[in-house]
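Support request, please re-run this one:
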Amino acid sequence: MPLYVDPFLIWHSPSQQDVALHGALLTAFNYLGQLAANGRQDEAISALITASECDEVGLGSSRTRRGKRIGRTKAEEILTIFRRIPRYATHGLAHIEELQFFVEGISKDRISDFACSFLKSFLIDFTIDQCNRLGIPLEPKTVPNVWDPRSRSFTDVTTHLPIDPTDDCPLLLVPKRWLRFVPWISYEDYFEKYCPQDDISHEPEILTRVEVLNYNRDNYGVVAAYIEAKERAFADAKNDPLFSQIPVRSARGKLAQIKKLPTGKTDGADIKYEAAVGQLLPSLLYPNLDFAQVQARTESGVSIRDLIFYNTQRAPFLQEIYADYGSRQITFEMKNVAAVERTHVDQLNRYMADELGRFGVFVTRTPLKRPILQRTIDLWSGQRKAIITLTDADLEQMVEVFDSKQRDPLDVLSKKYAEFRRACP
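Re-run finished. Output below.
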């Protein structure tokens, strides 16, 4: 599941235990910064590398539960901020999420792993308690790399935990109140709403993450202002709830709203179209496609994809998409236009990179014209990338089967893909 532990939720939790855990997390992390500053760089680097993955929790978007730890160079880069930024040299980090604004390659998944690693002792106790309450069987296992605040080091702990039956490895549970799809303090949010892009580059549309991070290191005040703003708005920071489908009546209402909209941008029709489709499709496709994220920004913070779903692989069609195109997540690009153009195809083609896979969906008003359809066929022939299209008529059919419950709305996507493949050589 593409969920992550958000340390900010621990920081502002009404639970005094959570507040104490956040303090312990910061104490452990800042201790490593002090170690490096006091000439014990190798010890700090070793501990950082160990803490950079927590396989027993298994959150994030990795195709397996086993992640890859950071290397020595990245650990050194993290420790450098304790020397380069005076605020951290004196007081340490106030939120470990701040690492995202200074170190390339540190994002929500890595922040989540750091938090789980340093709080693993609590997660062991939490897991045992939950399993005893729910009757989940436990087996004796040795858990490696548990942070001991007394010795300030990682150690192995033998205890009883639930087991992953596929590899016989121990599992750790995480409080749902800590989980979000995107951390409250995130690079993407900072880049979009707070980053002074014009001060960094006169061409913000091609601004890279590296340029932003370099600017942040020399202008800590900008990051500090963002952190203060997020702390003031803490009341809005809540864990992401489990998804619930909209009623059939609401689905029909959204469809009627979509069909009444004119094409183009008049009176914000394009924004209204994206909002309505972004609310309708998650309900129609749940639970086969889940954890929808509207207006998902790329890791660089530059490009925006309209709608991304996590591929649960629950259905044979989704298993085929994953096997043939490597699509752990699926991009839906919404175009409220009279006709999809070549530039739109090229844009979606750029989005279909390795981290998302090579399968994409246009959601637009009418079928593709023959030259544009041929361009998508050429993409499949040359690069084995598949792009299918959902029109107003297809959305209407999906709502009909959603209402009747005789078929799954996902079958409409499967049908469109079958039609596309028949058109391919």
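Residues 4-236 form one domain. The first helix runs from residue 7 to 11.
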